[in-house]
Amino acid sequence: GENVEQHPSTLSVQEGDSAVIKCTYSDSASNYFPWYKQELGKGPQLIIDIRSNVGEKKDQRIAVTLNKTAKHFSLHITETQPEDSAVYFCAASKGSARQLTFGSGTQLTVLP
Amino acid sequence: GAVVSQHPSRVICKSGTSVKIECRSLDFQATTMFWYRQFPKQSLMLMATSNEGSKATYEQGVEKDKFLINHASLTLSTLTVTSAHPEDSSFYICSARRGGRQETQYFGPGTRLLVL
Q: Testing the interface with B: which of A100, A104, A106, A107 to mutate, by most B Cβ within 10 A?
């Protein structure tokens, strides 16, 4: 089955700096890659996603890049703010069932 | 749009009792709903996938007789934890997908279960 690895497990940045979180996947058939933000005690919230026919996608301060050949994708957050502090999960899915396989999560802390 | 609710948000029960958690898609019809379990500081673990009107598909290692899932309508799925024990204490989260070629899963706010 699919295996998604996520790094780093924790990341601290100064407010205004950029943050990058990286994920690799094992199944070359995976074709949909969402990123979720989870605040303490809450459910995950979709922040951005990318499909395998696209190499990069941006939404204001957030961007995701995908390298299908290397089977890795990354989340980029620019001009970080304290409210960006949360756990971020990457995921991959394929097939008609569209089940998600999640990475292990990254605790992002933005220091004021 | 794409709001998913869960009820209750937290529940405390005695060992041996059963607990039902509801998951509703409020503004769209969800052909498929998923149930996850999350332990503290860990990732989400898929428990089962349910399609409206059919039996749920459980992941390996998840007891289908203990975690009963019903997806009776396009907007409601329920998870019943039967004969709950302290080791069932966890954060249970559902998600819903519109269906067809729509890949996006929208997650509920989660239910914190504590079994005493």
A: A100
